[in-house]
Amino acid sequence: MVEPEQRLLMLIDKEAGQGRLVGALAGREGWRTLSVDDSETAIATLGTRQGMQLSAIILDQAVPGDRACELIAELKARRPALPILMLTTSTSPQLAVEAMRAGATDYLVKPVAPERLMQALRNATTREAPRDELIPLSEKMPANLDFDAMVGTAPPFRDALAKAAKAARGHGHVLIEGESGTGKEMLVRAMHAASPRAKTAFRSINVTGVPASSLESVLFGHEKGAFAGAFDQQVGAFQHCDGGTLVLDEIDRLPIDVQDRLIHLLGTGSVKPLGAQYGFKVDVRVISASNLPLADLVASGHFRQELLDLISRTSIELPPLRKRDRDIGALTRYFLHQIGQQPGLRPLGVTSDAMRLLGSFDWPGNVRQLQAVLFRAAVFCEGDALTEDDFPQLREIVGEIEPVARGPMRDSAGVMLYSSDGNLRPLEEIEADVIRLAIGHYRGRMTEVARRLGIGRSTLYRKLSDLGIDNAA
């Protein structure tokens, strides 16, 4: 392919090691990297023959420091169409806002996973219709570790939360499946915060963020001299989390040989570091997260059935946003409230036309993408409420929206009262939604659910059975 070979990336960075890493990652996809180590050289380079060939810029904030936003603005003034990605160690939303207003295309918090960095470059340099506002930003807003912070009333979603709330109180391994961006990480942290192990060791490992050659050492540890380069002993994640919780994110990407070792560990409760002559018992709760249905990977031979059986004592599936599109309104209001609390931003409303536009998109990036889109729109909004005009790229993708007849109506709690044909829904369906809502709201505490609904526990369980509601949910 000719086009990738012609893409030139300018890296503004004074760390030689990081420069080599970024250059190597970019080189895998055909990028050439031009490195400069100060702001003046970067600006001067734009006017050179090489500078005119640039397809993107990565700027490490450590180079210009407090003047990073000034440098971004200067670069954008000289080359308005050139995507600029900023690397930083800061998780400050204020800096993210300022960088974006200055012209940054994306804002990446170090250490950045290789795939995250490459995805940011792919998104920034796509040749398709402009989709800047759809880029998954890495801004870091304070995360609520509470089931109540997970907004939505769609039955599959509330069932998943109720099941998670009940499972949180136990010690069994849990598997959470769902597309990227559906809220798996937030659900994991809510479960840990509500669990008996809340104050014990907790560690989360993204399988794709660890080099394959290092994965076994990271998980199981190794002894000094176990292999070339093992100059010191390393304590593995399972030993570190003894008595606590270990999260294995994107477990669907776990290599088969590591799966086999994990099967042995979970089956025996004993971990043996690489190069060790002994093993030792550990008590670790494993919460696994997968973007893909593991049953499908078992069928194709890419995942061990025995491992699936061990990690899925409780199995939870988070639905994609397109299957809970009626939650978009509540999620939008929730995110705008959260965004409005961040330094440099303010509370905003949202017009009905903007809501129709948001509701017309299928959100392949799910809830995370919706949050990113709202964040970007809020940064640049000059009015008191977001309108269609604040989502120009989204409107271009969706196209013209046909006027729609009155849709389902809800009460203030978010329970639908009317069906799409304008008639009232059957009482049984409304009652089922109310019970699901209560189970999720009170985190599966069935005594509290029954008390708040004004019924006895035996009556509640009878209704669960009659209405076909999963009370392990």
TrEMBL record:
Domain of life: Bacteria
Entry-linked SMART domains: AAA, REC
Domain Response regulatory: 8-125
Gene3D superfamilies according to UniProt: 1.10.8.60, 3.40.50.2300, Homeodomain-like, P-loop containing nucleotide triphosphate hydrolases
Taxonomic source organism: Aurantiacibacter gilvus
Subcellular location: Cytoplasm
CDD domains in UniProt: AAA, REC
Protein's job: Member of the two-component regulatory system NtrB/NtrC, which controls expression of the nitrogen-regulated (ntr) genes in response to nitrogen limitation. Phosphorylated NtrC binds directly to DNA and stimulates the formation of open promoter-sigma54-RNA polymerase complexes.
Occurrences of domain Sigma-54 factor interaction (ranges): 150-379
PROSITE patterns named in the record: RESPONSE_REGULATORY, SIGMA54_INTERACT_1, SIGMA54_INTERACT_3, SIGMA54_INTERACT_4
Sites of 4-aspartylphosphate modification: 60
Keywords noted in UniProt: Activator, ATP-binding, Cytoplasm, DNA-binding, Nitrogen fixation, Nucleotide-binding, Phosphoprotein, Repressor, Transcription, Transcription regulation, Two-component regulatory system
Protein name per the record: DNA-binding transcriptional regulator NtrC
InterPro entries with a match to the protein in the record: AAA+_ATPase, AAA_lid_NorR, CheY-like_superfamily, Homeodomain-like_sf, HTH_Fis, P-loop_NTPase, Sig_transdc_resp-reg_receiver, Sigma_54_int
